[in-house]
Q: What sequence folds into this?
């Protein structure tokens, strides 16, 4: 079974600085999707970014980018120019066939002003 | 556009009482539907998913059941709640079977007392 591991329970970043959240996963599949979701205090799950495993180019969405290392099964999220609104729980997720998501335990990101 | 509705937002129920959480999707046909649970401070775990009316797959053994009486309606139920059923429940939907985005409802916070 696929597993997703987020080894950082909590991270802090100064406003306007850059922070990287780590994620590793385990799978025997060659083609799959990976996601980062943001869960603010409202508990709404918001898609931040996704990566297709067969694409070598790292995905980017404005201030959010990933470092996807397929051989190492690593999928980290970099947030540049951090803003107070970025404070939230961040989940890394692997998508199985049937669009079923396997989530990591999450990383709480605190942004200091 | 597609929308997903989930209710109630908050629920406090005594141990041994029944449960019914409802989720409906608008603006799409034949969606895949999912129920996830988030225990306090942890990631989301898939409980049930459905690819069509009356078709329910359970991912983990538990005290809960799910039903899909209509194409865009997904219900999470229990005959007798346990304390361990407390948590945050999220409904989600997607289209297709391979690697498309899942969209989440706003969740139900269930407290069993």
A:
């Amino acid at each position: 079974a696929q597993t997703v591991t987020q080894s950082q329970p909590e991270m802090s970043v100064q406003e306007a600085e850059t922070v990287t959240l780590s994620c590793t996963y385990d799978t025997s599949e060659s083609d799959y999707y990976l996601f980062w979701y943001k869960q603010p205090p409202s508990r709404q799950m918001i898609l931040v970014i996704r990566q297709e495993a067969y694409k070598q180019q790292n995905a980017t969405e404005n201030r959010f980018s990933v470092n996807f290392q397929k051989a190492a099964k690593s999928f980290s999220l970099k947030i540049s120019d951090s803003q107070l609104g970025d404070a939230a729980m961040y989940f890394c997720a692997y998508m199985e066939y049937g669009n079923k998501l396997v989530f990591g335990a999450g990383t709480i990101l605190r942004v200091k002003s | 556009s597609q929308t997903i509705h989930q209710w109630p937002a908050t629920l406090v129920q005594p141990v041994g009482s029944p449960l019914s959480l409802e989720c409906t999707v608008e603006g799409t046909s034949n969606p895949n539907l999912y129920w996830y649970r988030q225990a306090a401070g942890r990631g989301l775990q898939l409980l049930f998913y459905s690819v069509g009316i009356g078709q329910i797959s359970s991912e983990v053994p538990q005290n809960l059941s799910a039903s899909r009486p209509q194409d865009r309606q997904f219900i999470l139920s229990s005959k007798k709640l346990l304390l361990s059923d407390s948590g945050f429940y999220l409904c989600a939907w997607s289209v297709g079977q391979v690697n498309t985005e899942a969209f989440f409802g706003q969740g139900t916070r269930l407290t069993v007392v």
